[in-house]
Amino acid sequence: MKLSLYHKIRIIFGIIILVNTNALSQDSLMVSNQINIQNNISFINSDASGYIYLIKKDEIIKINSKGKELFRYSNKSIGEISGFDISNALRPLVFYAQQSKIIILDNTLSVQETINLEDISLYRISEIANSNIDNGIWLYDNDLKQIIKIDTKLNIIIESGNISMLLNKKNIVPISLKEKNGRLYIGTKKDGILIFDIYCSYLFSLDVNNSYNLFIDEEMIYSWNNNKIISYNSKTHNKKELLTKEKYSSTIRYKYEFLALSINKLIFLKE
Q1: Which of 148, 153, 156, 229 sits most deeply, having the most CB atoms within 10 A of its CB?
Q2: What CA–CA distance (Å, rounded) separates 239 from 266?
Q3: Residue 242: is it exposed, middle or buried by C-beta count within 10 angstroms (0-12/13-18/19+)?
Q4: Interacting residues of 188 by C-beta distance below 8 A, sequence separation 6+
Q5: What's the number of CA atoms in the CB half-sphere (13 Å) around residue 144?
Q6: CA 244 → CA 29, 58, 127, 227, 260, distances in Å?
Q7: Residue 5 predicted with pLDDT over 70
Q8: Cβ-based burial of 180 (10 A; exposed 0-12, middle 13-18, buried ≥19)
């Protein structure tokens, strides 16, 4: 059967759309500003108000966008900080993986509460996240390969069961955990971003690996990996690489830009 010119154009146009939708586009990030900071910062984070947090081994320093120090937290007796969740700026969570402890702070970085996960026989938690729905805390248990939600009294609210068995994957390696808009996002090394509802029911996965420093903004998802940031539109499935000229030790989404950690500098980047 011969196709008319009209149908041939429709087919070609459809192929072009398909290719463009699935293609990985690239763009470069440009330096818009920078501020000097102290040396030996391990990683950085920021809150919704634009305050920046510098994490240095056993210490957290809260600064403004000009670099002025506002508050400081330190606890040398516990050890080195493994993670820091600031999704709720009034209730930051400091995670010590080796000691199985979570310290709850307030917005001045003053200690409010200490949670010892070993009290409920949780010894190998690798990731934590704030739950802004009920002030619970999400955990990923490496021993049982499951998601757990607890309250501050160490009551277990929800358990997912073994997600490796659920998804038929041998060795899921989570590297980031975030709750946003009634969903839980687990960034992994090689199994994409796994998305669950707030009851730990699996929904779907996104094809983005090595998802460090996950940031979710409505349908847009950003993650950092070496010298590039991946932006992913979960509705259109368009994926874009945002490249940096230098390799930074940590990069995060900051307001409508990005913020990167360099040697004794914070670098502000924009598209």
Answers
A1: 229
A2: 26
A3: buried
A4: 172, 173, 174, 175, 194, 209, 211
A5: 14
A6: 5, 29, 27, 6, 10
A7: no
A8: middle
